[in-house]
Specification:
Oligomer: single chain
Strand content: under 5%
Distance between the termini: 53 Å
Largest sheet: none
Order of helices and strands: HHHHHHH
Length: about 180
């Protein structure tokens, strides 16, 4: 009998931390606190469709939100609204772009940030014009093509693999859940 109690006690000691560490399911929209619902209002229609990881990130933003300055809060709201207007594919591309930027050396990040700020200082009409023209890749020495593979057409080459900030994923501190 004592052996059984000792075994049970040992099992409880070992299993309780594992059970406590089990990730809990993020709340549904209805389960969010009213303050969280107010902050995360732009996400209301899609909240219950979001992946658990994304919900946790947004809840983290909502937790930090009250400590933000008013201009930071306004920026978060604008970015949240813009984020929700993106298609799932555009969101995925923005996340990938953000990850690429994060891996760049600091000097390259600073250069991209400067270019982004210069772009944002342009008049709206000029930004639209630049945004609608396809980017041309930098001229680089090309490797010899295998026989039978067609040469790329002059205007049909793929976009540059260089990371360039887009309005969906600006350089700085983008909201990237």
């Amino acid at each position: 009998m004592a052996k059984a109690r000792l075994t049970l006690a040992l099992w409880l000691c070992l299993s309780l931390p594992v059970l406590a560490a089990a990730p809990k399911k993020p709340p549904t929209w209805a389960e969010l606190a009213p303050e969280q619902q107010q902050i995360l209002a732009p996400l209301a229609t899609d909240w219950d469709k979001l992946e658990p990881e994304r919900k946790r990130k947004w809840i983290g933003i909502a937790t930090r939100y009250p400590k933000m300055k008013p201009d930071e809060q306004a920026r978060v709201q604008r970015r949240m609204q813009a984020w929700m207007k993106l298609t799932p594919e555009e969101r995925r591309a923005a996340r990938e772009n953000y990850k690429k930027i994060e891996k760049l050396p600091q000097a390259k990040k600073d250069d991209l940030k400067q270019k982004w700020e210069e772009y944002n200082r342009l008049p709206e009409q000029e930004r639209r014009k630049l945004g609608s023209t396809p980017r041309k890749p930098p001229a680089a020495p090309r490797a010899a093509k295998p026989p039978g593979e067609p040469a790329p057409s002059p205007g049909g080459s793929p976009a540059s693999p260089e990371v360039v900030p887009t309005p969906a994923a600006p350089v700085g501190r983008p909201v990237n859940p």
